[in-house]
TrEMBL record:
Name of protein: ATP-grasp domain-containing protein
Organism the protein comes from: Alkalicoccus urumqiensis
Gene3D superfamilies listed in its UniProt record: 3.40.50.20, ATP-grasp fold, B domain (3.30.470.20)
Lineage: Bacteria, Bacillati, Bacillota, Bacilli, Bacillales
Short name of any one Pfam family annotated for the protein: ATPgrasp_Ter
Domain of life according to the entry: Bacteria
Amino acid sequence: MRGLREIDGVTIIGCDRRQVNAGRPFCDRFYQISSVHDEDQYILDIQRIVQEENVDLVFPSLHEEIDIYHRRRGEIPSRSIAPVTQSVNRMTDKGEAYAFMEAHGMKKHIPRYTLFHTNEELRKALMRFSDTRYTVAKDTNAHGALGFALLTDKEGYLQALSEGKKSVVWEEDYAAIPHHGRKMLMEYLAGQEYSVDMYLHRGKACAVIPRRRSGVASGIVLDGVVVEDQQLMKLAEEVGTLFMTDGFLNLQFMEQDGEYLLTDLNPRFCGSQIMSLGAGVNFPEIALRCSLDGECPEISPKWNTRMVRYRDQFFMEENGKDPFPEQLAENLSIPGSKE
């Protein structure tokens, strides 16, 4: 929304299942809609808003929305920046993503991993990582820090417990929990972490912006630098164009022994792409230009721009009335808001 508010002539129509939410002050108008888990009613709500407001472009931002817009794109009477791809599941399920990369000769760019479905399979899988102090466990379709656990032996767990590291789990405790569905074990990578924001249009990358992640808490980037890394940019473009032809994509890598290993794919606008905006690359504007004008705009990144994030807040009066009158966005002091 910060990126959209910087574009002249853009009207932001916000939607959320909650009436009170942190994004509403950035909107010109707002609608409370059904949850994505009530999919049919959610689609009806979006259809109504698109028609009433004559919406030109929809920005789905939730992980769950990506699959809905892929499957039911034809039911929304407006364009959207949801990814154009042959398979969304291939992008949101890391097991599928890694298998697809292996089949296309990119095995050296994925970590060592194995899949499991049951507790018995988990115990066998743990034996394959007996040569490492830590092993990463996660759901194959999780995003952010959801479902993440760092497994270790009892000695490592007790040390982590004394140091207040909450994500470290004794592997015996983890193996005692009933496990169903598909999950994965992955080698623990201790190198430098990077994210790459990119926008694809007609099978080509309009913008590829790497970010070195210096401080991360609960999956949220608090400190980082936009860097010009040609090796990483080239790899990100190869990975991105392998999976999709159009839309925004965030890729996450870990550097190890001079190589970059892919750890996550996010085919949606992620919160940390605000770093790219700070470096002069407005991805929401790129999405608008590509979708409505059919052309990629030129960009001039300010390399080595550093972001340090902090929490902010706004206040409202709880008096039984709508806490967000139409004029609220103008009255609040919001970075990026127009005078």
